[in-house]
């Protein structure tokens, strides 16, 4: 079961980053390269505890749908989303926001199980884990940029 952990220092308050990280609109903008868009559940604004969102995107040239649910939330410290339906056998995605001097440490932990048993494990080693790490890093860098820009505007 691969586990991807990404940490970024963001020069912005945890409250700002927390809301950007759970914004459906920001998520769609940050994943433009896969044409990700919300099609069901919460489709705009800030997703809340217990809500779901279904995303449609193109990964590896294939149109896919994935539904995730917010299963835990404590504003502005953390929230967790978990797959309800989708390409993975399962996933748990934890977003943590730790205030530190000069900003916030955003910690993103994505733990997943690929489908298809041994073939899925081979896909993880050959390309999927690296693909997911890059996908999450690009999204997090987008959030970092948006948060730091929002602070500069104040």
UniProtKB/TrEMBL annotation:
SUPFAM superfamilies: Bet v1-like (SSF55961). Residues 11-119 form the Coenzyme Q-binding protein COQ10 START domain. Signal peptide: none annotated. InterPro entries: COQ10_START, START-like_dom_sf. CDD domains: SRPBCC_3 (cd07820). Gene3D superfamilies: 3.30.530.20. This is SRPBCC family protein.
């Amino acid at each position: 079961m691969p586990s991807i952990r990404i940490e970024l220092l963001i020069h912005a308050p945890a409250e700002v980053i927390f809301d950007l990280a759970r914004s459906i609109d920001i998520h769609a903008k940050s994943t433009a390269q896969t044409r990700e868009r919300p099609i069901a559940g919460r489709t705009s604004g800030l997703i809340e505890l217990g809500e779901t969102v279904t995303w449609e995107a193109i990964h590896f040239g294939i149109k896919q749908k994935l539904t995730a649910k917010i299963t835990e939330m404590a504003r502005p410290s953390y929230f967790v989303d978990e797959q309800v339906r989708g390409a993975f056998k399962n996933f748990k995605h934890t977003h943590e926001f730790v205030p530190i001097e000069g900003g916030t440490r955003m910690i993103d932990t994505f733990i997943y199980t690929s489908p298809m048993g041994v073939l899925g494990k081979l896909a993880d080693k050959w390309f999927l884990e690296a693909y997911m790490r890059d996908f999450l890093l690009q999204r997090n860098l987008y959030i970092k940029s948006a948060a730091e820009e929002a602070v500069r505007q104040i």
